[in-house]
Design brief:
CATH topology: Rossmann fold
Shape: globular
Number of domains: 1
CATH architecture: 3-Layer(aba) Sandwich
Length: 257
């Protein structure tokens, strides 16, 4: 880093990080037609496996947040409270299945006796599913995992986190903003943590005209688990009822569980 505080270039770092060999091949440009066809089949198989595993989990609330917080951290405790509140409302808690905030929310669901689901991801540094899951699926591809986290959700709760949490937050906001999914609640928990980002939205995005004033209304900000659950349930009852009605019965022929 130079004296002005700007990061200096260090070009070799771009290729230095650990990477799964399959990811290198996936992002390494065109391959043989057979190789590309096999990859499409593998990705399709991962989607099918996720659909089969999660088809009957019921309407979920997906909780996002950092994997790096231990149980002594106040954000972990808040995540656990949120998990309890979501379960008490009769909804399923879904997370990325790992440690930190994800574990906290799943643990809160377990405390309440509710359903606790994880969509885990293979990483160079192995991420094990946390011990508070009733059901989980481990994915190779982040984009497949994100589809699952969105497909089965009726709301998104975002606690403090880093790059991955930001990715998930903006994915949810973009899908709602563009009408690709219903206007599901997007709830930020931890006012102090999110305050600089919200100031950036208002002072930069809104001032430059890159978002509309109504786009800020897509976000609910609170420190209260009770308020978060109220925001989730407000106006969503009919959608949740419709969800539960249209789920088909399990098929013994397809060995559905």
């Amino acid at each position: 880093m130079d004296t002005s505080g700007a990061m200096t270039a260090s070009w070799p770092q771009w290729a230095a990080g650990p990477c799964h060999p399959d990811v290198e091949r996936f992002l390494g440009g065109p391959r043989s037609r057979l190789s590309e066809a096999m990859r499409v089949a593998r990705i399709a198989g991962e989607f099918v496996r996720g659909f089969r595993r999660l088809h009957f989990v019921g309407p979920c609330v997906t909780v996002f947040g950092s994997a790096r917080f231990g149980e002594e951290n106040p954000h972990y405790r808040l995540g656990r409270e949120v998990g309890r509140g979501i379960s008490a409302s009769g909804l399923t808690v879904m997370t990325g299945g790992g440690p930190g905030i994800m574990e906290a929310a799943n643990r809160g669901a377990r405390d309440q006796g509710g359903m606790s689901i994880g969509c885990n991801i293979e990483l160079p540094m192995e991420q094990e599913p946390n011990p508070y899951l009733d059901r989980w699926v481990t994915f190779r591809y982040f984009f497949v995992r994100k589809v699952m986290l969105v497909k089965y959700s009726v709301a998104f709760v975002i606690l403090p986190g880093g790059f991955g949490t930001m990715d998930e937050l903006f994915e949810a906001l973009t899908l709602v903003q563009t009408g690709k999914i219903h206007a599901f609640p997007v709830i930020l928990m931890g006012r102090e943590y999110w305050s600089p980002l919200l100031d950036f939205f208002r002072g930069t995005f809104l001032a430059a005209g890159t978002i509309a004033p109504r786009d800020l209304d897509l976000i609910t900000v609170t420190d209260s688990p009770r308020e978060a659950v109220e925001a989730i349930l407000a106006g969503r009852e009919s959608l949740i009822r419709e969800w539960r009605v249209r789920v088909p019965r399990r098929s013994k022929l397809l060995r559905e569980k």
